[in-house]
Amino acid sequence: MASYLDARAHAGRWLLRIEDLDPPREVAGSAAGILHTLEAFGFEWDGAVMHQKDRTAHYAAALEDLRDRGLTFECSCSRLHLGDEDRYPGSCRERPLSAGVATATRMRVDPGFVQFADRIQGIFRQDVAAAVGDVILKRRDGLHAYLLAVVVDDAAQQVSHVVRGADLLDNTPRQIYLQRLLGLPTPVYAHVPVLVEVGGAKLAKSARSVRLEAHQAATQLRRVFELLGLEPGADLADAGLRGSWAWAIDRWKTMTVPKGLTLAVEDSAPAQGPTGR
Prior knowledge:
The protein is an alpha/beta fold. It folds into 2 domains: 55-191, Rossmann fold, CATH 3.40.50.620; 196-264, no CATH class. 31% of the residues lie in helices and 16% in strands. It has helices spanning 2-9, 30-40, 56-68, 79-82, 128-131, 146-156, 172-182, 217-227, 240-251, and strands spanning 17-18, 50-51, 72-75, 104-107, 113-118, 122-127, 135-138, 161-165, 188-192, 194-196, 262-264. The chain has a 3-stranded antiparallel β-sheet with strand order 3-4-7. The protein has a two-stranded parallel sheet with strand order 1-2. Helix 7 links the parallel strand 8 (161-165) and strand 9 (188-192). Helix 1 packs across helix 9 and helix 6 (146-156) packs across helix 7 (172-182). It starts with a helix and ends in a 13-residue tail after the last strand. 21% of the residues are buried. Residues 268-277 have low confidence and may be disordered.
């Protein structure tokens, strides 16, 4: 909702991308369900829906470019080998530790800070090499990593502004690092706080999350408007779906969004059936 409001408030285009990079984990019918829910809640996207599963050739080309310039290496390290390491220690930088086994492709990350100004969270900086080390661009099972796909696709779709959850804030410097290596533009970022229970658990995973209900779409939209700092009044109750969106678009400003990585929701209701996200 934040990304939609931001795009529409600035007379921009709102693009829809299905990030279906991992077929073994994809739930049948989930993509169609997402589209149906968005339509029921009044979202209108611009252009065709992009599916990442159809774009593997583009990811392969970007990876080949990096490989040709010596910016990647093959890594045979398994989860067992890395143990509880938060940062990749560079074990395979010179050559894979194990011969004849499947390898992942990692991007060589040099020391140095990547800094950007987030429209909501403010200045954020990270030494990617110190924080996570050399990051995976292609997994051992042959699937391309989200990091590579999202960077390539943002450029392909000419994305100028990204509005998303703050759980991806610390992933952003890695994306900027890769954008620079590939000579791609860096979008302007804004990270909204992730909704959590009072105890800190993600609301989307909570037993108390509120199920999305199409017949209550306008009411549920207004609740999220409140969480985004827009303060809808009682007079909006009869505005309907289209009127509610128009009201919020007219008043949208990122400065009203609460700062912080999370936002605790104290009054979520018990769910009846599947949890909406």
